[in-house]
Amino acid sequence: MNNRYAKNSLAFVGESDAIRALRKILPVVAISSSTVLITGESGTGKEIVARSLHNLSNRASCNFVPINCAAIPKELLESELFGHKKGSFTGAITDKLGRFELAHGGSIFLDEIGDMSLEIQVKLLRVLQEKTIDPVGAVRSVAVDVRVIAATHRDLEAEIQAGRFREDLYYRLNVIPLNTPALRERAGDVPMLLDHFSKQHAGAEQDPITFSVDFVQALQAYPWPGNVRELSNLIDRFSTLFSGQCLDLQSLPSTLLPKGLAALQSASAACGGATPSSLDPALPAAIAGLAGSGDGVPQTLGNEVEKITMMSQALPVLPPEGLSLKHRLAEIERDLISQALSRTNGNISQTARILNLQRTTLIEKIQKFGLRPT
Question: What average pLDDT is seen over the chain?
Fold first, then answer.
């Protein structure tokens, strides 16, 4: 492993199969100049992947230029991407280089490309085809040598069907597809991430926070709708308020917890402090329906907490000979997906919404379990 990769790979904390596979493929993809499309939910580290591809490439000595296509008004995005000439529109008092020219020789990261307007998509398609840009108000094109890395949390194939994304652009971007896994799909990495972020967010000359075994189990059971970004922010919060302390779920004010964790805290307390490992395995899935990134727990959550508490009373009996936890959880997952499909009369989009899954992920699971939408 070269030194650049050894240093850069520290950004990917975890030993799950998905993270191992990502670490393995990055150096292979990095040496190419092919366009890359990174997909994955918000907060899963798509920009980290993009920066890693740049840092591992022979373009690392040149600029890495990110731009969030969803954060810039569509009427300004063309100028931001391709630049403009003085006097080309009201307010253009000087020439301005666009992000593509700034990235010449290096890499440009087009984040949230699924939010780009159709008008700009047409112009981007030409850039990818011709390797030239047309600054607003310019009379001649400018050649650029840029490695394009795009990312989105949207299902672009669904966006194409809805008429919001160009199919020809999709195929131009999707030369090398990469996916960043959701944190709930690699819960085994949570303890390593807790250690990593606790050290990262510890104050100067202060010890990092630590977690009780019960709390670690609860954090692994929580579905993390905000993914690694949500986990990092939560540890930052705890590090600020409880520097150097060992934290336990029951000792924390519920107002400091995301809704799903607050619900688990209430359910655990109602069971006499039972830990997630002693609760019904379906409990994390039920909590997923309550998961949110808000800090407070609204009054309307009370009824849902009561439902979860009732679920937790029916504790599963562990056979003397043991069981395959992976198989048992797969059975529960299959049953919940089957119930959801029945409830929505086989509507994939509605089923994905009530299960808090991406549509493509749900389709994969339906195929995996051999289910048929009714």
Answer: 82
For 341, the enclosing helix (H) or strand (E) is helix 325-343
Q: How far apart are the first and last CA of the chain?
A: 50
Question: What's residue 3's pLDDT?
Answer: 41
Residue pLDDT, tens place only, 169-214: 999 999 999 999 999 999 999 999 999 999 999 977 789 999 999 8
User: pLDDT at position 179, please?
Assistant: 95
Distance CA 291, CA 258 (A): 7
Backbone angles phi, psi at 302, to 5 degrees: -55, -45
Angle between helices 301-313 and 259-270 (to 10 degrees): 50
Helices (H), 105-175: 118-130, 156-161, 167-173
**What mean pLDDT do residues 1-24 have?**
68
374 in any annotated domain = no
In a domain, 190, yes or no: yes
261 in the same domain as 157: no
Residue ranges making up the domain that contains 292: 184-313
Q: Which structure tokens are listed for 97? A: 């280089």
Q: What is the CATH number of the domain that holds 264?
A: 1.10.8.60
Do both 198 and 302 map to the same domain? yes
Two tokens at 213?
Answer: 């075994």
Query: Rounded distance, CA 160 to CA 347, Å?
Result: 19
* 319 located within any domain: no
Bridge partner residues of 38 (DSSP): 151, 178
What sign does the CA torsion over 183, 186, 27, 39 have?
Answer: negative
Residue-wise pLDDT for 223-261, tens only, equals 999 999 999 999 999 999 998 999 999 888 888 999 888
* Contact call for residues 365 and 340 (beta carbons, < 8 A): no
267 SS3 class:
helix
**pLDDT tens-digit readout, 40-66:** 999 999 999 999 999 999 999 999 999
Domain count, the chain: 3
Its pTM stands at: 0.69
Instruction: Compute φ and ψ for 188, nearest 5 degrees.
Output: -65, -15
| Close Cβ partners of 75 (under 8 Å, ≥ 6 residues apart) | none
